[in-house]
Amino acid sequence: MEIDGKEIKAQVWDTAGQERFRAVTSAYYRGAVGALIVYDITRRSTFDSIKRWLDELNTHCDTTTARMLVGNKSDLENIRDVNVDEGKTLAEEEGLFFIETSALDSTNVKDAFQIVIREAYNNIRRKVLNSDSYKGELSSNRVSLINDSKNTSSCCFR
Questions:
Q1: Closest by alpha carbon to 113, among 125, 121, 105, 123?
Q2: Residues sharing a CB contact under 8 Å with residue 18, sequence separation 6 or more, in sequence order
Q3: Cross-referenced PANTHER family, in alphabetical order (predicted)?
């Protein structure tokens, strides 16, 4: 993806919300600059577990991590179990971006990633401009950020 004439690359980790990945996901949260919390609009239980995932995200991520709540399977409107307004309300209460998508027909999927990546880029840019803990190496078409802090961690999107 290109932002402000610079090439932006994102590393994406999809844990599919499965318990068996829970032990390793906390390691990937550290240093993450963006997160998509996805629920299935046809399964209320996935929406009901969002608070737990947000708690985990809040525990392991910086407060400036770009976050989006995503209601997936918008193509299955006829069997919807979670109202659009419920998703919007929760996102607003938690300070999250919100979008509904359909992985089946690709509706809004690209938009969801682009919004989070752009917000993560803007957050990092603000950190670089406002903090001595980052050194930005800028060229005409690529951004490389080097974190000078003692803690090293990976950078990923979920």
A1: 121
A2: none
A3: DRAB11-RELATED
